[in-house]
Amino acid sequence: ITTGNHVTPESVKNTTVIVIDVLRATSVIISALKNGAKSVVPVTSVEEALETKKKLENVILGGERKAQKIEGFELSNSPLEYGSTAVYDKNVILTTTNGTHAISKSSAANKVYIGALLNARAVSEKVAEGGDDVVIVNSGTNGQFSMDDFIASGAVISEMLSIRDYELSDVAKTALLIYKAHPDFLSYIREARHYKVLMDLGLEEDIRLCLHKDLYDIVPEYKNGIIKLNF
Ligand code: MLT
């Protein structure tokens, strides 16, 4: 297992990837599918979102720029907005600053799963079924390392090791040690830059939900440009 936020087709070739953007893109994707969305289509620009909308039926547009709702979109990037009334049976087209890019960049992997604290245990069980090396892709913030994704990857690694043995890279070991030192997450994550951005926008409830480990037991998969629970 290794973890990090630099993804290239080469770095994920022949591996199974877990993409993590705990605050908040992958937490949003998991919430949407848990609440009955038919699919989530991650796209990297607003233009692409509007183009994709023309090709699909039963669509709802979601996402953020600078952590806030995009003009003309129905939903922002708050997992609390993705309840069943909003998303049931819908194809959610989602564009976010970092998370949806990290997902697209991982497409050269054998398998791409969507992970967060919300499904840490479930995603660990899913990857244990396969024999690939595992790369945990941290979405990061604007190309930079982000503390929130790093500790979440530590939590996933801890779950994975409780299922079977894995060899860990040094960076994976560091993520695990940080998780073990801060099992409550908050004492570490409140130092993160993106934590402050969200708190300043009054999004404390979002953070609380995103830090709820193992609330859900679903594992979304990304394949051919679409995220679904079952292909
Ligand atoms: C992202 O994908 O950049 C993040 O999820 C940003 C956010 O918290 O809205």
Can you give a write-up of this model?
With 231 residues, the chain is of the alpha/beta class. It has a single domain (2-228), classed as ComB-like (putative 2-phosphosulfolactate phosphatase, Alpha-Beta Complex). 40% of the residues lie in helices and 17% in strands. The strands form three sheets. It has a four-stranded parallel beta sheet, with helices on both faces. Strand 8 (221-223) and strand 9 (226-228) form a beta hairpin. Helix 7 (147-163) crosses helix 8 (170-181). The longest helix is centred in the last third of the chain and has 17 residues, at 147-163. The model has no long low-confidence stretch (mean pLDDT 96). The structure holds D-malate. D-malate binds next to loops.
State the strand order across the main sheet. Answer: 1-7-2-6
Number of helices: 11
**Which structural class matches the secondary elements?**
alpha/beta
| CATH architecture annotation name | Alpha-Beta Complex
Under CATH at level 1, the class stands as Alpha Beta
Q: Identify the overall geometry.
A: globular
**Uncertain regions spanning at least 5 consecutive residues:** none
Helix content: 25-40%
Largest beta-sheet characterization: 4 strands, parallel
- Whole-number mean pLDDT: 96
**Cα gyration radius (Å):** 16 Å
Cα end-to-end separation: 25 Å
Q: Order of SSEs, N→C?
A: EHEHEHEHEHEHEHHHHHEE
Chain oligomer state: single chain
Number of domains: 1
Say which molecules are bound, naming each kind only once.
D-malate
Number of strands: 9
Q: At the third CATH level, what is the topology name?
A: putative 2-phosphosulfolactate phosphatase
CATH superfamily descriptor = ComB-like
